[in-house]
Specification:
Keywords: Signal. This is Lipoprotein. With 335 residues, the protein is mainly beta. The protein is 11% helix and 31% strand. It contains five helices and 17 strands. The strands form three sheets. A nine-stranded mixed beta sheet has the order 3-10-17-12-15-8-7-6-9. β7 and β8 form a beta hairpin.
């Protein structure tokens, strides 16, 4: 396993290999090596490699529930607004995130036939209308809840989560193998820098080229991982390390079985972690989830954010993520 980190004056320092059976990349700054193929970390007997305050990338001894006890009906708990099974075979989960924001989880099926729409539409409501079953009139309460990013309607009437559409039966090709698990270069390209992270960054900043020191990205192939914004400050040379984030995005591809995909968030160091997502990614599926603070502007809200993935025994997963941070007094201009 190899890692890349940013040191003083923006120079790169390389630490080589921690484990030859694995290939990982964690960098402060910009990574454009999206065509790099990853090798699975399959050494389940190795102890977890710790990275700072409890973060890790590697095997986990965590016990997972049996398959019959795994439930994706409410991945955001009582903040789940709707679970939508699109005709493409993709699944979408809409959740109230607080601060007037709605989160959208997207899971694309294993055969690679569905295309991500998360970066195609401007608002969660537009995504909802695009992926809802054809010719279905969407309930007014659901549209209002997604618009407002709140499960409680204006008259304080709690919204009952909706389930729309029917899950698509896996095709024979899906049963044989996964498009992205079997094509690591395609995975790295589709969910790498140019095709995934640049559009995400441009939602928040005027020119991402001026903001490389505000980004922390990582990717790997493992059986378990956990990454936290505050564990990875962007730099020590530019004032205090603003270790929290205003936004984050992670992709998880599960191979040879299911992977539990989790996300957490808190406003201050003394706050307990709030679970934002608990979702079982299907064998061969690719799940994407974003986290948001209330404002990305300098001196405004920045939250601590955490992603976690745990594959069931015999399975592994690929992940790639980005945390968007900020440092006062630099040329990086937030929108």
């Amino acid at each position: 396993m190899s890692k890349t980190t940013l040191t003083k004056a923006g120079s790169l320092a390389f630490t080589f290999p921690l484990l030859l059976a694995a290939s990982t990349m964690a960098c402060v700054g910009v990574d454009t090596s999206e065509n790099e193929a990853f090798v699975p970390t399959m050494a389940d007997t190795e102890s977890a490699r710790l990275n700072g305050d409890g973060d890790f990338y590697g095997p986990s001894a965590r016990a997972l529930p049996e398959p019959e006890a795994r439930d994706n009906s409410a991945p955001c708990g009582d903040q789940t607004l709707a679970v939508v099974h699109a005709r493409s075979g993709a699944t979408y989960v809409f959740c109230a995130m607080g601060n007037g924001k709605t989160g959208v989880l997207e899971e694309l099926p294993a055969d690679g036939s569905a295309v991500s729409v998360l970066d195609t539409y401007t608002t969660p409501t537009e995504v909802l209308r695009a992926v809802a079953p054809e010719n279905m009139a969407l309930p007014d309460d659901l549209v209002a809840a997604v618009d407002r990013g709140a499960r409680t309607m204006e008259e304080y009437r709690p919204l009952k989560p909706f389930t729309l559409g029917v899950p698509k039966t896996p095709s024979p090709m899906t049963m044989v193998g996964s498009y992205y698990c079997d094509n690591p270069t395609e995975w790295s390209y589709t969910y790498g820098w140019n095709n995934s992270f640049v559009p995400f960054i441009e939602e928040y900043v005027e020119d991402y080229a001026d903001c490389s020191l505000h980004l922390w990205t990582s990717s790997d192939t493992v059986t378990a991982h956990q990454h936290t914004a505050s564990t990875n400050p962007v730099a020590d040379d530019y004032g205090p390390p603003y270790a929290t984030a205003c936004a984050a995005k992670e992709h998880v591809l599960s191979c040879n079985g299911q992977t539990l995909f989790e996300a957490f968030q808190k406003e201050t160091p003394s706050d307990p972690w709030e679970t934002k997502l608990t979702y079982w990614v299907s064998d061969g599926g690719v799940a994407t989830w974003k986290l948001f603070a209330s404002d990305c502007q300098a001196s405004h809200d920045r939250d601590d954010m955490r992603y976690k993935g745990t594959s069931e025994p015999g399975a592994y997963h690929k992940y790639s993520n980005i945390f968007i941070k900020w440092l006062g007094g630099t040329s990086c201009v937030f929108k």
